[in-house]
Fold this protein.
Amino acid sequence: MSTTTDHGDERVPTTASPQELVDEARRWWQTDIIDVRPGEISLRGYPIQELIGNVGFVDTIWLMLRGELPSRAQAALFEAALVASVDHGPAAPSIAIARMATTCGAPVNSAMASAINVLDDVHGGPGQQCMELYLEIDAELRRVGHLDDMVHLDEATRLVLQRHRDAGVRYFPGFGHRFHPLDPRTPRLLSLVDAAAAEGVVNGRFAAIGRAVEDAISEGRPKRIPMNVDGVTAIIYCELGLTPEQGRGVFILARSVGILAHAVEQMTQGGRIKGPMPKSIGYTYTGPARRPLPNDLDR
Amino acid sequence: MSTTTDHGDERVPTTASPQELVDEARRWWQTDIIDVRPGEISLRGYPIQELIGNVGFVDTIWLMLRGELPSRAQAALFEAALVASVDHGPAAPSIAIARMATTCGAPVNSAMASAINVLDDVHGGPGQQCMELYLEIDAELRRVGHLDDMVHLDEATRLVLQRHRDAGVRYFPGFGHRFHPLDPRTPRLLSLVDAAAAEGVVNGRFAAIGRAVEDAISEGRPKRIPMNVDGVTAIIYCELGLTPEQGRGVFILARSVGILAHAVEQMTQGGRIKGPMPKSIGYTYTGPARRPLPNDLDR
Amino acid sequence: MSTTTDHGDERVPTTASPQELVDEARRWWQTDIIDVRPGEISLRGYPIQELIGNVGFVDTIWLMLRGELPSRAQAALFEAALVASVDHGPAAPSIAIARMATTCGAPVNSAMASAINVLDDVHGGPGQQCMELYLEIDAELRRVGHLDDMVHLDEATRLVLQRHRDAGVRYFPGFGHRFHPLDPRTPRLLSLVDAAAAEGVVNGRFAAIGRAVEDAISEGRPKRIPMNVDGVTAIIYCELGLTPEQGRGVFILARSVGILAHAVEQMTQGGRIKGPMPKSIGYTYTGPARRPLPNDLDR
Amino acid sequence: MSTTTDHGDERVPTTASPQELVDEARRWWQTDIIDVRPGEISLRGYPIQELIGNVGFVDTIWLMLRGELPSRAQAALFEAALVASVDHGPAAPSIAIARMATTCGAPVNSAMASAINVLDDVHGGPGQQCMELYLEIDAELRRVGHLDDMVHLDEATRLVLQRHRDAGVRYFPGFGHRFHPLDPRTPRLLSLVDAAAAEGVVNGRFAAIGRAVEDAISEGRPKRIPMNVDGVTAIIYCELGLTPEQGRGVFILARSVGILAHAVEQMTQGGRIKGPMPKSIGYTYTGPARRPLPNDLDR
């Protein structure tokens, strides 16, 4: 390194006193989530040693995100959605990336990071976007004053979908699947929401909205466009009061399980610098034919 | 883009038939974990619709990693370790990074990825390294034939620790804490391991090994070097039969909960391009004083 | 791992012949950029061994992104923008993250990845967004037919800015700085653009547009809102014909230099699990006071 | 969020005065690299406005990493190594990942991050490891006092290689290639090193060491194991005095160019959630056959 002279103190000019600066620095990071002092940790006010062994992992996810513990019935419905989302196989880019990463020498944290990173708007966003759609229909119903009965549901649904179509939307997140004619996760999760609604655990409002969307977008088509796992987990997360951002986050938590399992399996299988395809398949070059550098290369 | 001529097919030369190439390509990605066909998904052989609502999220993590479902008692001990590991506050680089990332415009997947990525050997590895240490002591005991009784435990522990010290190791992963004089998670988790051992859920062998390590490294010191959360979760994961790599992975899964909660909280708080400290604090420049370019700049 | 039975071949049903499948697989990845065969590599058609030593790194960046080599004068202007963007110090979250990552045990690739990842819309996007703004003004000028003279520039600029203000935009990317009253990079880069325009290397159109934006947004304010490094590099990238996406990409390439330098410097400095602030500063907990678990905890 | 009470100040206890705390906080981040004050930026002491337009991008990379500017001849050799490393096509996992990421909705920063992240020990480390090997041979020569003449080079090389073989190393980084019988980048770069050594720009010592390694590992084999791009860039970086860590870093900078170009090309090509292979190829499931949940499922 170069010889150094300690002549710089890089900051914006300030007239604050040392105490004011310390106070400002201490407020720079603040959180409602966790209180850590020497020998003490509490999450949302609950001492960690009381949570451990008394409260489940799913309850803790809920507590960390929302500030309070769920009821057992809320946790059970939430848990079903998490279980449904853990994996969809190595043909998904996120899973393939986790596996490729380990063959590049990446440890499990890094393989998981590269994989989770691609759960972006297209690969990881449909659940969140579907929640936003449902909430928009919900807001439309509330706007016209139909809070409790759902008689105007189809109308509100059509209105909202049309708004999106007018804005250029061609397909709706949470409906249809590129691989499954009928997503096997959907009917099972829907029946759990219906049971929870029957028991008063949730309201059932978003299950109705989700079905109304499926009806509306399938109308006039030879084949229904059935709700997929994103469409039905969006119902569950809306029923349970999660925000769309939280919904996306818990999908990522769930899928992280599959990402981890595949990363670890690939480590066991071995392989070095695994590309997307065998070398005997290769890829196709479509660029210019081999050419010399220009004669007048000006440098 | 440039004008293209389709003249390239980039691959290694092969004499394989098309069918052989297809077969090779289909074997390129293979997995024991998940079977996905149109309309069907099963995890480790279990249809997803049977898992949903019948099997918990923690059971599913275990199933995905290990191939079979845990017993209820195994899952409970595993779950306690997961709950213990969800967060340690925004002073940890991983959590701070998740929060900073959201203020840079990163969506939740990307914020989580940047954060998880730094759970590398130093920040996320001690649990894994501690498992490796315990397993090394376990192997040493087995090597000298003391499989069942633990009378030679202290000797084997000292021998293994000395081996590490001879290789330059100065401190041992899983013991001591930079912040907590006594980690509040340790006694609670240890008592759960002991209870599980008393009920025959686990063997108790690694709880004894962990305590022997604590004794050995504290010997001759004015103050004990107490087991921390990594040391005790390493006991649990070893007792339950996880590999060190899996142990690191499930720590990451658990800590992802805190990472997500902090990312979402920061989104709610707002802020743009949040640096590590307020600008009034700034940073210190220790390089060369301001200087002109050299006179003889040769270009 | 579980006992395995090779019974699955996960794919969508197909009636394609093996040869058709191989052809489809070979077309799955295709590129105009690079031709790699055993013993041969060419970039955009140029053999790598001819590029090496004859063509500069900046020329190669241009070639890779755009398909053809730049003139020397184009490369020089492009290079000036790259040099200007390499670093803005450890108070920037990206740089702080790179440094924190290395203290967590992350190797340099991983530290760089976590850092680059946060160059998202807010931290890394203003240059791209500013290019889009300039191109929108350019399109507005073209729409009304003023291709060559710029007499209607102020009008088009005001119209476009008003469109953004009507959509809720409060500040414009590329103008104003949270730290610098006047960004020292701006006048120097602007003078290089002007010189290049005088020599016919570029058109000068976007330099005029950029200045018109600065005038328009400063109008009626006590103090000008001066163009910052994003505003002026956006001029350069537009003048040189890069797309906004490419502009963001080359900013990231440039900033990666600073990210790397800081990561390596932190490795030299050492440190373990470096948080954003010293522990004596800590953070502020603003959540609920310590509380016991609910009495009626239902599990 | 929960109702909050500002009762927490999470930090380690301290008796430091406010001024001492401020000083500690200000020293928390310190750097020799960049001095940023309102209206002023300098890199390694040089004002940014003097660097822009006068100093090249490659010079700036060198300056940022090493503290001083290179000579023109040093920069030219360094630049040749950077040009050689920009890309190796979409069959490489890093490039494939960048392309897949964009089809998942990831912006260019995020696609680049996921890709760069996998340039870990196996995919991005051989150059660094080869530098370490050369430096070990260099140290061995110095140890036995042969600083200037290289007469004992073969002996020192054999001794070091044997040491690695004894430790279980089966192949050496920087030699051999899975795809190229002869790497087209090697002879061109070697001739540039030789020319630079002839002109006294570099010493030539590491070129000799690299060739000695190639001789030694090829000895007794039917076919030579030729030096690849990592082996020859390792020579260049050692000749120029970079550390192995810096060598890995600059390889990543160079490869980032290819990563960016492929990410942007994929954005132009479009595609959504692009997996590693077409769906008609799919993958192979090798796990347990479909099975019902156990009858005695204990939960």
In short: Chain B touches chain D through 61 residues (CB under 8 Å). The mean pLDDT of chain B is 92. The first strand of chain B starts at residue 8 and ends at 10.
